[in-house]
Design a protein that fits this description.
Distance between the termini: 71 Å
Strand content: over 45%
Number of helices: 2
Structural class: mainly beta
Oligomer: single chain
Largest sheet: 5 strands, antiparallel
Length: 460
């Protein structure tokens, strides 16, 4: 029996090794179209808890774009669809900043669902290979890891691993390999990590946090530091009562996790009162919707989030209040930013080397008010979020709401934030957009292409 126990322990601790399959040249679509998705019908005039064009959803996983200066291209992925059917395709492409064009988007796989929780994320390794992590919403469908066979290319991919994980955060730590943060479903949503030096042989999943009925997280990397900010889902309601903000980071490839002040945490975190707690929103009777995590120009973390008194759409819970929260080195300072009309108005926080803060978010009401998204606005602050100026109205007079503005890694000034639009009250077409750093122009990715490449179209 002792020998059998040892054998089982060896199997449990053994790395997850990829299976070899022949590479495949990817088919190309004839244009850029986003998935439409709706969640939790509400049986009122707002139709759903949230809905719309969700090609760049959800906020609980990233990154979806990364700039590679070696080839002057921004690689990105998104949740697409066929022209005939609202069925989720995992798409990968790039903007060539030298030519100002995009190729026909490459179809990596068909997820055979319309669930935008299954959207992909991507990362580049030190050699320039494009890695795509295809998530699953829960355990009903598989997840995949794919790798481009050539650096800086989206033409041909090999399947590395078929398994199951959700809400993916694949971070390549320079010189070390992947530190892959993600979620696994078991009695809720638990946060886990895996590591791999080459993306092929993976460590077993390590539990990081599972508080109440689970957690949602955002992550970001600065050098060898990787940080996670997350909430928790209290019993018995769960995610519709998401609460609190926790922060932890690692600088040793996930070996040790610490508080923002440097204290070592005992992993996994399982209690709502723990040393990683940053904001006790339960005490304030507020729900928390995390939006972004970044580092300021001195290396201190900044969190962007929204609070609400309930999860339902509509004016019942009033304007939703946005905040930034910055670590000063001794304390967290929370400052109000603005208000908007829905919990799922999602935006991104850019912090530039000179200290300028920019937020791109759908903070103005759109054509379908009190539902997810709105008109996209660029805001700026020169005093660490104490005051904000509305720098640009990026969209206006739209037919459909815009939401889920996403920030690329190493964002190029010409592809600074990208997002999708979509009617929130009925299934409809969804298009993809991006803007430059100054908000001087918004471009729409071409919905129909006759050639192999085309320039994006000015949208306003």
């Amino acid at each position: 029996m002792k020998c059998l126990a040892i054998q089982l322990l060896v199997l449990l601790l053994a790395p997850v090794v990829s299976a070899q399959k022949p590479p495949a040249v990817l088919a190309r679509d004839d244009g850029y179209r986003g998935i439409w998705y709706a969640n939790q019908p509400s049986k009122d005039e707002y139709r759903y808890k949230y809905s719309g064009g969700f090609a760049t959803y959800p906020q609980q996983q990233l990154p979806q774009a990364i700039y590679a200066k070696e080839v002057n291209k921004t690689f990105f992925c998104y949740g697409g669809r066929t022209r005939e059917k609202n069925e989720l395709l995992h798409m990968v492409s790039y903007l060539d900043h030298t030519t100002g064009t995009v190729p026909r988007p490459a179809i990596l796989l068909n997820k055979k669902t319309d669930d935008a929780h299954d959207n992909p994320t991507l990362m580049l390794d030190d050699a320039g290979h494009v890695w795509v992590f295809s998530a699953a919403h829960g355990t009903a469908r598989p997840s995949w890891i794919h790798r481009s066979t050539k650096p800086w290319s989206v033409d041909e991919f090999e399947e590395i691993l078929e398994t199951n994980f959700s809400y993916t955060h694949p971070w390549w730590m320079p010189g070390k390999g992947f530190l892959f943060l993600h979620t696994r479903y078991s009695a809720g949503r638990g946060l886990f990590s895996m590591t791999s030096a080459d993306g092929r042989a993976w460590s077993q999943p390590r539990s990081l946090a599972h508080i109440g009925m689970g957690d949602y997280q955002l992550t970001w990397r600065l050098g060898q530091r990787l940080a996670s900010v997350f909430d928790y889902h209290p019993k018995p309601v769960g995610l519709n009562e998401r609460s609190n903000i926790y922060y932890m980071e690692t600088d040793d490839f996930g070996g040790t996790w610490r508080t923002v002040g440097g204290a070592v945490l005992e992993i996994p975190l399982t209690e709502s009162a723990n040393p990683a707690l940053v904001l006790d929103s339960r005490a304030e009777k507020q729900l928390v919707y995390l939006k972004d995590l970044n580092f300021d120009n001195t290396g201190k973390p900044v969190v962007l989030f929204l609070t609400a008194t309930g999860y339902e759409s509509g004016p019942k819970h009033g304007p939703r209040t946005w905040f930034t929260m910055r670590w000063t080195g001794t304390e967290w300072v929370r400052r109000p930013f603005t208000t908007s009309d829905h919990n799922y108005d999602h935006g991104s926080l850019h912090i530039e080397p000179d200290g300028l803060w920019r937020i791109v978010a759908p903070t103005d009401p759109g054509p379908q008010p009190w539902t997810a998204g709105g008109e996209m606005v660029m805001w700026t602050s020169r005093d660490e979020g104490a005051t904000w100026s509305k720098a640009k109205m990026l969209t206006h007079d739209s037919l459909r709401n815009h939401t889920y503005a996403r920030r690329p890694v190493n964002a190029h000034p010409g592809f600074y934030t990208f997002w999708a639009d979509g009617h929130t009250l009925e299934p409809a077409e969804s298009r993809l957009y991006f803007t430059d750093r100054e908000g001087s122009q918004v471009w729409r990715l071409p919905e129909s292409m006759s050639g192999n490449s085309a320039p994006p179209e000015p949208a306003w």
